[in-house]
Amino acid sequence: MSISLSIRVLWVSRDRTQSAEAANHLERLREFNVARADGDTVERELTQGEHDILVLDVGTLEEQDSQLLKLVRLFAPNLPLIILCDALDADSMRQILQLKAQDMLQKPVAQDKLVASVKALVRSGKTRGNRVHAVVSAVGGAGASTIAVSMADIAASRLLRKTGSVALFDLDFSTGNCGYILNLNNSFDLGSVAPSPQRVDAEFIRAIQLRYNKSFYLYSFKRPDLNTDINGYELTLRMLDAVTLEHEHTFLDIPYYETDWKDDVLSAVNTCTLVTEQNLPALKHTLDVVQRIKSLRGKDFPVRIILNKHMGGWFSDRIATRKLKELFEGAAFFYLPFLPNVIGEAIDRGILPSDVAARNKFNKELAKYMKSIELTDAGPG
Q: Is 0.85 surpassed by the pTM of this model?
């Protein structure tokens, strides 16, 4: 899967002045790059340009509109297509269905509905390729980085060993903690490329990647100023784009604090794991993050919650499982055990928990959790 810097929209109409307001609205939004074409220029645009989605602006689907629709599908049979139109009769509706338009919006088009449709269709198309798995810290200190590192290792060494390369991208530029956990500190200065994000490509990514014990690839940088750099947003998304194209599976360690790119990333990942602790403040923050993701992805997108550092036992839980089910309102949640000796020794030595104790309960439960989520297109393992 590719996380693109912007969505490339080709807006097609018989007359370029049609629905100018709707097209102009997309152009004003940072995440869209809109090109326009009419009957005379659409063939050139489709054969020479690169686009993520087509928006075809017609009226009542008159003969000229029908020819334009057929032309679009001739030169772009697989691109997602949205049709903006007036109320149509049954014959016109049948024609649209035959030419495989993914969505049809009746004029006048509500701008929020158009934006949501474009994002949903583009996201659906991109998730058919390489897979991206977000590990999101709901609060600081919950242990998300340790979990992200261990998930990447379990995937690379066991669950996804035969499906291609695995990478871990540490998006917490404030600390670069994944590199410290594994004692793999990347000396490359991201500040040197920040002024020119367009320099990021596959060759650049291969030059800066590190690898842990012939297992997974690591991208982790301590560069706190990148969070406020004027080019930080573009550089981060360009690096994500290149990394996720380079590897069949990419795990992302996403920090709890706010960033410009957070919604873009959460809108594009294939799986999402929230890491939190079992106390009320942490759980309240977790619910906020769940609602945020659902608003971006829709209520049917599965968000899983890991309650880390779980003590276990009948009487040790301050918040009962029954109460957690009520709080999370159907969101699946899982426990990972509190193993301070194993985790502490692993972090102090710059190795993985599995290197300290191969059969430790933390890794066993984490592997069980990973088998329950959509790591591959085939679904849960």
A: no
What type of residue is 111? Q
Parallel, antiparallel or unpaired: strands 103-106 and 131-137:
unpaired
Assess whether the previous peptide bond of 108 is cis (omega < 30° from 0).
yes
341 Cβ neighbours under 8 A, 6+ residues apart: none
For 27-65, how does the pLDDT look when each residue is reduced to its tens digit (9 = 90+)? 888 778 888 888 788 888 888 878 889 998 887 767 777
> Which of 115, 149, 135, 112 lies closest to 266 in space, CA to CA?
135
Residues 119-154 as b or e (16 or more Cβ within 10 Å = b)? bbbbbebbbeebbbbbbbbbbeebbbbbbbbbbbbb
- Residue 269 CB contacts under 8 Å (≥ 6 apart), including other chains: 1, 132, 133, 134, 252
Q: Please give the pLDDT value at position 360.
A: 95
From the candidate CATH numbers 3.40.50.2300, 3.30.470.20, 3.40.50.300, 3.90.25.10, the one assigned to the domain spanning 7-126:
3.40.50.2300
- The architecture CATH gives domain 131-370: 3-Layer(aba) Sandwich (3.40)
